[in-house]
Amino acid sequence: MNWEEIFIALPKLWDGALVTMELVLISCLIGFVIAVPVALMRASNNWWVSNVPLIYTFFFRGTPLLVQLFLFYYGAAQFDAVRDSMFWPIFKEAYVCALVVFALNTGAYTAEIFRGAIQTVPHGEIEAGIAIGMTKPTLYRRIVLPRAIRMALPAYGNEIILMLKSSALAYTITLLDLTGVTRTIIARNYLAIEMYFAAGVIYLLLTFVFIQVWMRIEKRLMRFQA
Amino acid sequence: MFDFQGFGPQIAYGAWMTIQVAFGGLLIGLVFGLLGAGAKLSPYAFLRGIGQSYTTVVRGIPEILIVLLVYFGGEDILNRIGDQLGYDGYIEINVFAAGITALGVSFGAYATEVFRGAIQSVPRGQIEAAIACGMQSHQIFWRITLPQAMRLALPGLGNLFQCLLKDTSLVSLISLPELMRNSGIAIANTKEPFTFYFIAALIYLTITSVVLLGQIYAEKWANKGVQRANS
Description:
A: MetI-like fold, 10 helices, B: MetI-like fold
């Protein structure tokens, strides 16, 4: 182990870690915004309403994230219509592509997690809400969603950790996230084991810190149980 | 429907390779998982510590990092050892071996938790009954614990296998000629990235769907001796 080189590389690795954190944070926020309406549709009793978003979740949960990334980043350029459109300057950016794909991917997984939670909200509570004359939006806003999100918290936390780890794939489309930076450093100093080890430790630290924060959030949202 | 432009066989070979990698990883992963669960449930604190650090570390770092570490890092280590022993040449690792080992190690860490949970939920009374019958501990494991734990572990393992199937795409990054890699080669020649990555996506969808059906069937088979409450 060459500790000195690890020490020299640390500031650069930290820059990469910042990019990783930023990617995960933004894509999870967008993913959450996508997931809630999709989950509500998936939980609907109407066949059409519940099965049309299934195409979206089925595709994004059934294919590897790497395929999705390449499909968007390299695939979009195949069409002249895309390249000539006004959105091209935005879409040719690897960063935007990674964000869009990560958000759609985590959105699909999160939607299915939330759907499961929405469907397990105790039936009596919904009936009670109807009995006191709540309209459907009120019912969802006050009873179904708050209940469902609390039940989904542990699974949702896992999904965010998975996203944190999947975000390492961003390096394949030229982004300099933690893994990307690690690989550029290795290309220069040939110390594969040391640098991957350092990156692994940083990823471990990130997940560890996230788990601590998430447990705090869970405790706070579930404080009525204590 | 799609114009493969002569790359059909190569894509088909890639898909076949993907399936091989997935099952190779599964095999290694199940071994790691059982060993890990054994370590975590062992009466010796030392083994428990090893099991605990295995699952914590592997589950905390990205799969792709494990793949890169096993491939490039493994090669690095072997060459450093080779230098020490006075071997001049460059040692290369087989990509397939590195790929399935890396995927197996990461699968095994998650499988450890699944097996541990399953083994722990085999009723204590049954083990006591087996002891009372005079079974030895390895007999208890093979005859009582494992068959029942397998049934309980099946849903969890199925989900993990779905993840493993998708993670096989990662070994394309160490240039193992599987589906993604071969699609990439086809794209380099035809300049049609969307077409070929879309085909790849559809093939992955097909594989995961077939595995899902197999999983449902297997769970039904494993649970046929179990009575369900009518709801």
